[in-house]
Write a structure and sequence with these properties.
195 residues; alpha/beta; Rossmann fold; seven-stranded mixed beta sheet; 5 helices; 9 strands
């Protein structure tokens, strides 16, 4: 078993156990600190989705920093069991954990878009691009939604054109970036005569 540490917020300093599972790669403290510095004024009360939750390091950090609702999903039953136990230990009332395949989830219509989405899938499995397409095509994102994406340095995923780069960084073999949805509506700027 490994551990993840909550960096800041109401659960600051708490260490949570995570199972040793293949493909389970918690986002490092350094990268999380950078990401949540970028997000520090954008989390309070918002709706978050941690799509490949794994250790829960991202979703639980968001919950600690007063996100309104955090939905964490993973298909690995051991990871899900660990997430559920950590939510129970922390007493999180703003977190829901579900066992589901991320790509199946984003292939269905979402009725209530998310404000912040964390995308940190296992590397080298072409999951990032597929998940991004599903999020964009099925109503998971609104104008202004923020998406955190992490991938290996030797990958170059093609992401939707509406995802405009907000910030980016690297740490060792990890590349990470925060995007903001700006779809643009060419007709939006054209006022009707007399308006």
């Amino acid at each position: 078993m490994g551990t993840v540490r909550i960096i800041s917020g109401r659960y600051r300093g708490r260490r949570l156990r995570v199972p040793d599972e293949e493909g389970l790669r918690p986002t490092t403290d350094r990268v999380r600190e950078t990401l949540f510095n970028w997000l520090q004024f954008r989390l309070n009360g918002v709706r978050c989705l941690d799509l490949f939750a794994g250790s829960g390091a991202l979703g639980l950090e968001a919950a600690s920093r007063f996100a309104g609702q955090v939905v964490m999903t993973d298909r690995n039953p051991r990871a899900v069991g660990s997430l559920q136990e950590n939510v129970r230990i922390l007493g999180c009332t703003n977190v829901t954990v579900t066992q589901t395949d991320a790509l199946q989830l984003v292939s269905r219509k979402c009725l209530e878009p998310y404000d912040v989405v964390f995308l940190d899938p296992p590397y080298h499995r072409d999951l990032l691009e597929a998940a991004a397409r599903g999020l964009e095509d099925h109503g998971f994102l609104r104008e202004g939604s923020l998406i955190y994406a992490e991938h290996s340095a030797d990958e170059s995923p093609a992401l939707p054109a509406s995802w405009q780069l907000f910030r980016s960084g690297s740490a060792g073999q990890c590349r990470f970036a925060l995007y903001e949805v700006h779809r643009g509506d060419p007709a939006a700027g054209a006022a009707e005569p007399g308006s």
